[in-house]
Each structure stands twice: as structure tokens, then as C-alpha cells.
Structures
1.
Amino acid sequence: DVKVTQSSRYLVKRTGEKVFLECVQDMDHENMFWYRQDPGLGLRLIYFSYDVKMKEKGDIPEGYSVSREKKERFSLILESASTNQTSMYLCASSFSQGGNYGYTFGSGTRLTVV
Amino acid sequence: AQSVTQLDSHVSVSEGTPVLLRCNYSSSYSPSLFWYVQHPNKGLQLLLKYTSAATLVKGINGFEAEFKKSETSFHLTKPSAHMSDAAEYFCVVSPPYQGGKLIFGQGTELSVKP
């Protein structure tokens, strides 16, 4: 069974901490994505990557950065966590022609910043 | 700019009655369109997708959606609701030539009454 695995299901961090959210996929997908999900807002794209060491800003990149050193792993970094980054974070991956082949999502990481 | 609007934030139906979840999209080009479902505390699951083939798309669990270009709509339907259909549903567009990114609607919460 193909999988997108997010390293933590729940995470609690303090304001100002540097936070790493990890995502690993085993499908040899080229594209990987990070979204945050907030009630009433749906999912909003933070960053995405279409190849190793490549990254593109999504709709809400402020306060975040990403790293993709290997094809299967895509990390989201909160440089200095703030309370407004409390959210559910979802990772997804797809083949390069994502529209034709669909996307696979991880189960999510619920991050609370206190 | 591409966007997705789900016309209802919450829909409530009785078990055994039809389900209609409405979605309108805005896209300069013919997009790929999806419906995803998210059950409480679960990841996102693909229900169905439209990728410029047949305009009536059949998905899992008896759901289907019809792509209507003239109305820029992609409404999700099911003839008879089941209790297990209670979840949040997202209409999603993937515009062409944008690296496979997904744009989500705000979500529609479906409640099913016994």
C-alpha cells in the first residue's frame, strides 16, 4: 500500500522554537506539497517541490521554509514558531502529471504553539 | 486566477435521501477537478476526479460528479445517503501548467440524520 508518512501526529511547541515537520513518501513521486488546514478556510498551500532541491512558494509561505534533499523526503520548517501557526499540517505527493494521476495525502500533524 | 467556491459550508440530509454538494470553479484553462473526503481525525481520501474525459465521473462509495463547463460547476451527488457518509468534503482544482498544485475549496460538512 502506497504511503505518505508524517513523522508526528500531534506536536506541542513553544513560541519562538524552531520546528521541523517531516514527510516521507514511498511512491517515487516527483511532486511534494505542504498544506495547512484551518476551519472554514479549507487547505492552503504553503510550499511545494517538483524535484529534489527545488521549491516553490505557495499561497501562504510567510514564516515557513522547506527542504528537499532527497526525492522521498520533504521537510517543513517553522523558523520561529508563533501562536498563529497553530494548525493541522498536511503533506501530499504526486507524480509530475498530478492532475491525471491524483495525489496522496498523509494523515496530518496537528501542531499547537503555546 | 484560479479559485474554487463550495456554495454550502454545511449540508444536512436524512439517511436514504439524495446528497448534493455544490462546487463552482474559476479557471482560465480546462482544469483537473477532484472531490476529496475527510472523515473525523482521518486523512484526505480521493472520491473522484475529472481530467477532461467523460463529463460524468463516477467515484467510490456511490458518489458521482458532473463537469459542466458552461456553468463552471462540478457538483457532487449521491442517490442515497448513508450514515457513514458524514464527513467533510472538499472540491479541488488543479490548474494546468502550475506544477501540479491543488487549490482547495473551503469545505462542506455533511451531516446524515438517522
Note: Chain A is about 5% helix and 55% strand.
2.
Amino acid sequence: DAGITQSPRYKITETGRQVTLMCHQTWSHSYMFWYRQDLGHGLRLIYYSAAADITDKGEVPDGYVVSRSKTENFPLTLESATRSQTSVYFCASSEVHEQFFGPGTRLTVL
Amino acid sequence: SQQGEEDPQALSIQEGENATMNCSYKTSINNLQWYRQNSGRGLVHLILIRSNEREKHSGRLRVTLDTSKKSSSLLITASRAADTASYFCAMDEPLSGTYKYIFGTGTRLKVLA
């Protein structure tokens, strides 16, 4: 299917566990982004990537790791999950300005 | 660094009325976008306005930009129940040399039928 997909859509994990959220886009867009959305904070940029093998920190990168070995995939890893990382995570892609968003992953850290 | 804030945080109006949302930002921009988010869904792009534009229209949407005040507004005319959603502004960071955008905190709009 064309577009941008995220998996899983829902995830419950425990404090200290490693979690990887997946993002896949079929447009071959150069840019990909990870955001978290929390009540009262809007969307905050975690990491972004301008191309394969090029990544950079956003506003709230601590506790997260990303990689981009292929243009179409941009996984986000929480190396040791904390309760403060309970949130809804959105992936997006763009070629220039307009960003196309995935459906989101709701992550709960117990 | 760039920051965005929207006002009001929440807005409730009757169907047929106009809805106005405001966005203020901290540092100079080249481009500003508005996005819409239906409950539980990803954001959808509505409109982009460039720093050399003062006003832009798209259907029932009217966006204004005042770079001297570092602010933008989104007007939805003749609102419908289907316009119920959250609306976000997003500002670029020209010095970053990238297409990275910083999003505002959003306005939750409820249109009552």
C-alpha cells in the first residue's frame, strides 16, 4: 500500500525495556521525522533525517535512538523505556515542506 | 530556537460561524504551515504561507501572516461539524538549512451542529 505506515499501533511495555517503533514510507521522500504528542505540548520533534544515513536531533532527543539505513525506513528505539516516554508517537515524511503523517503509535510504559 | 504557541487552546462555536485561531512564534521564518488533526489520527497539511506573503486562501480557509509581529492566523469561514479537529501551526528554521519544522501547541476546535 502506498503511503506511510507505523507499527505497532499500540504497545504496552515495562520500565527499562527496549522498544522499537517502526516507520515505513513508499514515496521515497528524502526527509523523515519522529514526533511525540503529549497533552499541553503539541507535537515535539524527537529526531529527523534528511536522507539515508543522515540523522539529527530535534527538540527532545534524550532517551531515543534512530537509524536510517534505507530511504523508506526510519525506526525509533527507546533503549531503556521510562514512564515519561508514555506518549503517542508520530512518524512523518516529506520531500520539501509538506509533511505526510503516519497514523501514530500509542505507547504506554508501566 | 524556534517555538510556537497557539491561541486559544480550545474554541467552541456553532455551525455556520467563523473560527479564528492564532499562532505566535519566536524566531524569523521563511515558511509557515497549518495542519489539521482529527481525533486519534495523524496530521494533515492544510496550507503553506511564505514570509513574503501576507494572506493566502484555500477554499473556506484564509491564512494571514504578519512577520513584524511574528504571528499568523487561520480563519475557517462558515464552519461545519466536520471541521471539529485540532489545528496546528508549524514554522521552519531557516538557519537549519533543512525542511525541519517546529509545531505549535495546537487549538482544539469544536463545531456544534
Note: DSSP finds no helices and eleven strands in chain A.
3.
Amino acid sequence: NAGVTQTPKFQVLKTGQSMTLQCAQDMNHNSMYWYRQDPGMGLRLIYYSASEGTTDKGEVPNGYNVSRLNKREFSLRLESAAPSQTSVYFCASHRGREEKLFFGSGTQLSVL
Amino acid sequence: AQKITQTQPGMFVQEKEAVTLDCTYDTSDPSYGLFWYKQPSSGEMIFLIYQGSYDQQNATEGRYSLNFQKARKSANLVISASQLGDSAMYFCAMREGGGGADGLTFGKGTHLIIQP
């Protein structure tokens, strides 16, 4: 049982390049999330999707776009990467509001 | 104002001692949930314990317990008989029951180091 799978695990980009972070869950969860983690800042919500076909902005959405491709997959796109987007990115999902979040293993992104 | 406050950036504790990690929260919603996660140096996020705002008893999971004081808006994590493997970052998080984003809001974390 894979849970939440994120790819890639590591990525280095140059300023202005674009990339998509992929996330898939096999637990039939409705809600999926993208967080970023910066030193001393905890985890901050970028975007979320409460169900297939819907997406909403979180606390720090600027510079990102998302796609909920189907119930399993939720991707995060950086159209024009900036050094301020250097961070660790986590995808997560959950079954219901009272349930814990299941996290992927994270993507370490560096933008030079 | 911060919704989740963790006032201890770092803690050093002797092995086998009990540890209390502080967490205070701010919400006007009567329905909310409080979570604790552990993040070891390998980076994964590990769920430890959950407390609902209407739960009458403090949550416990093995060596972990949550000291929930609703009037004081605190949800401290207690680790009994600490072990070297407990060294990690610990995050307190809250989910509020109202509309809008239903993801978790995280505190900035406490870096716990267990010393032999």
C-alpha cells in the first residue's frame, strides 16, 4: 500500500524555469493538499482540493498553479521559478475532516 | 495573530525523562481538531496523536498523550520515558470546523534532542 507518492524527490531549477510536482494517492481520499516547509516556518498551505474538480488557494498560493487531474492525482506547477520558491514541498491527503493527514515523502526543490 | 504557537524552538532532554512540548492555539470556532506530528531528520511527517474539541478525555497513544486544556487553549504533547529515537522536530497543528480551507494550520515546530 503506497499511500501518498510524490515525484521527484529532488530538483534543481534555474530562475525562470518551469516544472510540475506530481502527487498521487491510492487511499481513495477526497481531499488533497500541497504544503511548503521552510526553516523556522513550519508547513504552510499552498493549495488544496476538497474533491475532484475543485481547487482553492491556501495561505501562500502566489507563483503556483494546481491541477486535480482525477481523484488520485493532484499536481503543483511552478510556471516561472524564483529563488524564494526554494523549499521542501509536501503533498498530503485525508479521508475526512476528523482524520489525520497522510503525507508524501516530500520534494526538495532548489531554485538558483 | 498566529493560530498555532509553539514557544520552544529547541529542547534538550535526558533519555528516560518525560517531555512536555507546548502548544497554544487560537480559534473562535467551537469545532476544531488538534494534531501532533513528528518529523525525524529523514524528513517524513509521522502522525502521533489527535484531539477533537468535543472530546471529553485527553487523547493517548502509547507513550504519547495530549494534555488538552480547552479554557487555556493549550494542547501540550507529553512523551513519557523519552528515547533516543524521539529526537526530531515536532509540529502542533489545528483544523478548524468552519468553511474555507480545511487543511491543517501548523506551528513553527519544536526541535527536540534526547541526550543519552
Note: The longest strand of chain B covers residues 88-96.
4.
Amino acid sequence: GENVEQHPSTLSVQEGDSAVIKCTYSDSASNYFPWYKQELGKRPQLIIDIRSNVGEKKDQRIAVTLNKTAKHFSLHITETQPEDSAVYFCAASGGTSYDKVIFGPGTSLSVIP
Amino acid sequence: DAGVIQSPRHEVTEMGQEVTLRCKLISGHNSLFWYRQTMMRGLELLIYFNNNVPIDDSGMPEDRFSAKMPNASFSTLKIQPSEPRDSAVYFCASSLLGSASTEAFFGQGTRLTVV
């Protein structure tokens, strides 16, 4: 089945700097890659997603890139703000897992004012 | 729609007791996921239903865990007997298979503490 790895597990950045979180997946047939943000004590919520027919997608300060050949995808947050502090999960879906969404272990991001 | 609704929000029980967690899907959604979240293991997929049918239960840790979906909008996750190591936050999430977006919408979670 699908296996998703995520790095780093923790990340601290100064406010205004950029943050990058990287993920790899194992099932080459996976075709949908969402990113979820989980604030302390709250539920995970989708912030951006990308499909395998697209190499990059941007939404304001957030961007995601996908390298299908290498089975890598990354989340980029620019001009970080304290409210960006949260745990971020990448996930992979589709392929042999069909609609099953498999999450990476998460990255705890701290933005220092 | 009120979104995915889970109950109870918090559950404290003694070891050996039966625990039942409940989940109401978003109206019209046809896929249901149960996840368990702990600091050590992150978000683990326990079981996945599509159109009320369990598709993959390979993540269910032991026979003590069972899940049902008696109708298209409701699911239960039962632990019998419960053990302290079952303490975690349990999330259910629903999505619409076949739609343009397969976003999984999460419920608020049930924080289970087994003492």
C-alpha cells in the first residue's frame, strides 16, 4: 500500500521567512496530494491540494510543487506569520489505494514573532 | 450542513470497558474514514468505507476494534475491551468519491482516555 514520509518533523522559522516541508510517496499510481493544517486542539483542515497532472499550484502565500518522477511533493509558505504555527500533514490518494487518503507523520511548524 | 459530527467529544473510561464512538457524515458523502491520532504515531488510518462497505480495515489494530456503517450517514467505532494504550484522539472524516475534489472533511474528534 501507499506510504508517505514527511520531513522535517519540526520546523522553526522567524516571522517573515519562508518555510518548506517535503514529502515522498511510494505508490507511483497515486494522483491526488492534499495538504492539511491542524491547529492545536482542532481538526485537520485542507489548505491546498494538487493533482498529478499539475506540477505546481499556488494560493496566496502557499504553494505546492509535485515531482511525479521522483515521487516528491513539497509545501512552500512564504512571508510566514505567527498564525501559520500548526502541524502540517501531507497526504497521498488514488492509485492502488483508490480513494483512501494516507497521511504523512506531520511537521510541527513554529513561527517566531 | 453542519459538517462531520462526532460524539462524544471527550470520553474517559476504565480499562476493560466498552467504548463506542459515533460519527455522522456530511449529507451526500459516500466515503468514510476513521483515523486515530497520537503523538507517537501521528494520524493512522484505521478503516475506510465506501458506500457503506468496508473497503480496507488493515489499519485496525486488533480484534478489540470494530467499525460499522449501518446506513449511508452514520458510523460507529467500537473498542471492546478498552486498554490504556487506546488513549488517543479519534477522528472520522468523510468525502465524496468521484467528485472533482476528494477532500476529506474531518469531524472535531473524540478524545478518548482509558484509565
Note: The mean pLDDT of chain B is 92.
